[in-house]
Design goal:
The complex is a heterodimer of chains A (312) and B (652).
Chain A lengths: L1 H20 L5 E5 L4 H16 L7 E5 H5 L11 E5 L1 H9 L6 E6 L1 H11 L7 E5 L4 H11 L5 E6 L7 H11 L2 E6 L6 H10 L3 E3 L12 H11 L3 E3 L2 H6 L3 E4 L2 H18 L12 E4 L1 H6 L6 H13 L2
Parallel strand pairs in A: 1-2, 1-3, 3-4, 4-5, 6-7, 6-8, 8-9, 9-10
Antiparallel strand pairs in A: 10-11
Chain B lengths: L2 H59 L3 H12 L4 E8 L4 E6 L12 H9 L2 E9 L13 H5 L4 E10 L1 H51 L16 H72 L5 H32 L7 E4 H19 L2 E4 L5 E4 L1 H18 L4 E9 L4 E8 L33 H12 L2 E6 L5 E10 L23 E5 L3 H13 L3 E5 L2 H10 L5 E5 L8 H12 L5 E5 L4 H10 L2 E4 L4 H18 L10
Classes of the chains: A alpha/beta (312), B alpha/beta (652).
Chain lengths: 312, 652
């Protein structure tokens, strides 16, 4: 806690130094918020940059809300923007900057929506490290953890509906079957959930704030438990709330991958295309697993998944 | 002494605190218990509705009416539950049990419905059912608005609880409290009474003791216990009783002594009075005899021819004897009144006649003194004894004339007390009587302003006689006077209507003129002077007089001579004879009732009564010649008209 505070102080000090000295800032890191996850990501990013030779002074930390104000002038245009979170990306793109932008901590759907929104008026190049996992990786994990599960239940909400065709092809590749349930915007959740759970062996949770949020998660998980359908979630907090396991990339992993992308840009001057996270973690809820009669090891699963992905 | 009052007060003093404490503690206990029950009831209601809300969350989320119904049914089995229902967010009832939920519930927070049910005495509770929120530190949850939004209401849980069992429990609690209180009161009261009795007993014992002492029982109590809290008081009472007993004995002794002494003194006084009376009687008797003779002699002397100087002397002599005779008459009146021999004969009396007689008698006296005597004529009648009443009014009028130098004396009658009574007023314009003398003047020999006892002012017996007579008749005598403003004496007596036929009025003077000349009169008198005087007087009137000094002489004469027309006898004859028996004997010898009269100097009441009983007239010595003369005439006239009249009385 105290270290994060110190970091915050350092962050603000650096802003003051950068603004006061009029020094040409190389990289501006813009955070959507200053929650623990963001701070962890920034930490990992900074230390990784430092390790790869980027002086600490060249990195400026900004808050998305500060950036929104027009009063802070940029004496010298920054060379690179790193936007952490959807809000930060919106702010950065909204400033009509010329420097390239690397977005991180943003789901693919969110990234695509924002870039589409700002695409016309933004000449600069934008890339991203997605927060969510590639569907194939998730299905691979399913196959590793539950080889018998053939029917994959998916609850489609307004945000995630666009992934439906992609998922269908990925499922087909792996010989799995989709059991879909639709949730309309503001509609009753349960009927969709019931449809998805009725014939599914496992429920694949895809990020959609209309479907999965703090108010619904308890009842959804309770319903799956009653239906004895395990849930593969996209965030460790769902595991804490009662999902069987989650496949996710940690803040540090995001920070590290972002730093790698910066390095690549520094070396080549070209931004790589948006990428899913390379590194990931698997978290398992032992209690749920036990009650479902499963025996799973998160780390082992993650290892196996890594190995599967590194296979040619 | 009021033992019950002491006892009840003591009881109240002992019971009141017990009662207050018990009532207060029972009240506090009951109120606290009721509060507890109420709080528990409310708490339970809240728990029940929350239980329904929590248990219904998933049912609502999954729109599972069956599971909701089972939840509702489960709660319905709880005691006191009237109704249970679950509504969705739009206010549609999804499950319900028990009584139907009122239409006042419209799916909002239910405040209107709760108030409505509360008015009906039903506890209704509404709990919002919302999805339980799980905190997610989730980078995917990009929408800030979604995070900030308050948990959406899934629906409402409604529970209605009846207060009946609560009230029943409150009631039973009340009865328990009351029972406990009553028990407490009984036990406390019993103890209080026991303790009170312990305090009361010694007090009551002392009180009874004091009461007995008050009633005169000074007996000493020997059963005083040392445990008695009032032991010292009891001892003190014993001592007091002893002293009181001594004191009483001493007092009784002293009273007895004093009584004895008093008795002796009384005896002495009585004997002194007796001696006085005896002396007075003897003196008056012994005075009467010579005065009697003197009067008769002077009367005889007055009839003799003599020169002017001599006649003057005789007149003075006569006046002196007259005064002496007045005094003796007054004394005689008083002794008669004392003796009670005056027989009162109440009858209607014509006051007009009475006053007329008075005027005739007093007119000359008034004229002599230069006074105006005014008698107001009246036709009223009163109930009284005419003789005694006349003497009373005469005395008052005489007094008035005597003490008035100038002006007038006024005699009048007027009805008073609303015509029930009549008042005879004798007023004068004389010197008046001061306030301090007004009660004294009715005493014997009391005279105002006559320390030298001037004879012209009378003897001081008149008012005393008036007062005694009034007492005898039941009349009242009143006096109203002040110095220099005259005096008014009033006699108040009952007024009566005039009778139809006039009763015979006692004649003041017998209007029959009987010639005494040649009348044969026997005189029996042992006193030589008196005999001689009366003989001469009778002879001067032309009577044929025979005298006897003893009864025997008279008897002897009766045997040789014809019976006389009239017998005049002294009462006390020598040799133990009495005139009474002599007359009786002579009458017996003559064989007819010879008119007779007795003379006596005695004022003895027994004598007077005896004479009266014998139907004879008693002339008190000194006998006035005029009186004797009129009596003799009267006797002869009565005998001539109606034979012998034994009731004939001498007018006063």
């Amino acid at each position: 806690m105290s270290s994060s505070l110190l970091r915050l102080v350092a962050f603000f000090l650096s802003i003051v130094c950068w603004a006061g000295a009029g020094q040409a800032a190389a990289i501006v890191v813009v955070s959507s918020e200053s929650s623990t996850s963001y701070v962890a990501t920034v930490d990992a990013l900074l230390s990784e940059l430092e390790r790869s030779g980027v002086p600490r002074a060249d990195v400026v930390l900004r808050n998305a809300s500060d950036l929104g104000g027009a009063d802070i002038a940029e004496p010298t245009p920054p060379r690179l923007f790193i936007a952490l979170g959807t809000e930060a990306l919106k702010q950065v793109l909204g400033r009509e900057v010329r420097a390239p932008v690397i977005a991180a901590l943003i789901p693919r759907i969110g990234f695509e929506r924002v870039t589409k929104e700002f695409g016309k008026k933004t000449p600069t190049s934008v890339t991203a490290v997605y927060l969510d996992q590639p569907l194939g990786r998730q299905l691979d994990l399913l196959r590793l953890a539950m080889p018998d599960a053939k029917r994959v239940g998916v609850l489609w909400g307004p945000e995630s509906a666009s992934l439906q065709p992609t998922l269908a092809s990925v499922l087909q590749l792996r010989g799995l079957q989709e059991v879909g349930g639709q949730v309309g915007a503001g509609g009753a959740l349960f009927s969709g959930l019931k449809a998805a759970l009725d014939n599914a062996d496992v429920l694949l949770a895809l990020p959609d704030s209309y479907v999965y949020n703090s108010a619904t998660v308890a009842n959804i998980l309770f319903a799956t438990y009653r239906a004895r359908v395990p849930v593969l979630a996209f965030s460790p907090s769902y595991v804490k709330a009662g999902a069987l396991m989650s496949l996710h990339t940690t803040s540090v992993q995001v920070g590290v991958q972002t730093a790698a992308m910066v390095r690549s840009w520094l070396h080549s001057g070209i931004l790589p295309p948006p990428l899913y996270p390379i590194d990931f973690s698997v978290t398992v809820n032992e209690h749920v697993a036990r009650s479902l009669g499963l025996k799973l090891d998160g780390a082992a699963l993650a290892d196996r998944l890594h190995r599967l992905e590194t296979l040619p | 002494m009021n033992f019950t009052a002491i006892r009840s007060r003591m009881l109240a003093a002992a019971l009141l605190p017990v009662f207050l404490v018990v009532v207060a503690s029972v009240g506090v206990f009951w109120a606290g218990r009721v509060d507890d029950l109420d709080a528990a009831h409310r708490q339970r209601a809240k728990l029940l509705v929350r239980q329904v809300a929590i248990a219904s969350e998933y049912g609502l989320f999954s729109n599972n009416a069956a599971s909701l119904q089972s939840v509702v049914n489960g709660v319905q089995h709880e005691p006191d539950v009237r109704a249970v229902a679950v509504f969705d967010a739009s206010g549609t009832q999804l499950a319900g049990s028990g009584l139907p939920i009122s239409a006042h519930f419209r799916g909002d927070d239910g405040s209107e419905y709760v108030a409505y049910q509360s008015r009906l005495g039903v506890d209704a509770l509404v709990e919002k059912i919302s999805a339980s929120s799980v905190a997610l530190d989730d980078l995917f949850e990009t929408s800030k608005d979604a995070k900030a939004v308050s948990p959406v209401a899934l629906g409402y849980a409604v529970v209605e609880l009846s207060r009946d069992s609560l009230k029943a429990r409150e009631r039973s609690t009340f009865f328990i409290a009351a029972g406990v209180g009553l028990l407490g009161l009984l036990v406390g009261g019993f103890l209080a009474i026991r303790l009170g009795e312990r305090v009361m007993q010694p007090i009551l014992s002392v009180s009874r003791r004091l009461e007995r002492i008050g009633q005169g029982d000074f007996s000493v109590r020997s059963d005083i216990r040392y445990q008695d809290p009032l032991h010292e008081l009891q001892e003190g009472l014993n001592e007091m009783a002893i002293r009181l007993a001594w004191g009483r004995e001493e007092l009784e002794q002293r009273v007895a002594d004093v009584t004895q002494e008093l008795r002796v003194k009384m005896g002495e006084a009585e004997s002194a009075t007796l001696a006085k009376s005896r002396f007075l009687a003897a003196a008056s008797h012994d005075l009467r005899q010579p005065t009697h003779a003197l009067g008769l002699f002077i009367a005889r002397l007055g009839q003799l021819p003599m020169d002017a100087q001599m006649r003057q002397l005789v007149a003075s002599l006569d006046a002196s004897v007259q005064a002496m005779q007045d005094l003796l008459d007054g004394l005689l009146d008083i002794s008669r009144l004392d003796a009670g021999v005056v027989q009162v004969q109440m009858r209607p009396v014509s006051l007009g006649e009475l006053l007329g007689t008075l005027r005739a008698a007093l007119a000359s006296v008034a004229t002599e003194k230069g006074l105006r005597l005014r008698v107001r004529p009246t036709h009223l009648w009163a109930l009284s004894d005419p003789v005694v009443l006349q003497r009373m009014v005469m005395n008052l009028a005489n007094n008035a004339l005597r003490y008035t130098e100038r002006g007038s004396v006024h005699i009048a009658c007027r009805p008073v007390d609303g015509g029930k009574n009549i008042r005879i007023d004798v007023s004068d314009s004389g010197i008046g009587i001061s306030q301090e003398h007004q009660t004294e003047i009715f005493r014997e020999f009391y005279q105002v302003g006559n320390p030298r006892r001037d004879r012209a002012y009378g003897l001081g017996l008149g008012l005393n006689i008036v007062e005694r007579s009034a007492r005898l008749l039941g009349h009242t005598v009143a006096l109203r006077s002040s110095l220099g403003c005259g005096t008014r004496f009033s006699i108040t007596l009952p007024l009566v209507a005039a009778p139809e036929s006039l009763p015979p009025v006692v004649p003041v003077e017998v209007p029959v003129t009987v010639a005494l000349k040649g009348l044969r009169v026997w005189v029996i008198e042992d006193d030589d002077f008196s005999r001689e005087a009366i003989q001469e007087l009778l002879e001067s009137w032309g009577c044929n007089v025979c005298v006897a000094s003893t009864a025997e002489q008279a008897y002897a004469r009766m045997r040789h001579e014809p019976a006389p027309d009239v017998i005049v006898s002294d009462y006390r004859l020598g040799e133990g004879d009495s005139g009474l028996s002599a007359i009786a004997c002579l009458r017996a010898l003559a064989g007819r009732c010879i008119p007779a009269c007795l003379m006596s100097g005695d004022t003895d009441a027994a004598l007077m009564q005896a004479v009266k009983d014998a139907g004879l007239t008693l002339l008190h010595k000194p006998v006035r010649p005029a009186k004797l003369r009129s009596l003799v005439r009267h006797l002869v006239a009565s005998a001539a008209t109606a034979g012998i009249d034994p009731d004939a009385q001498l007018p006063p």
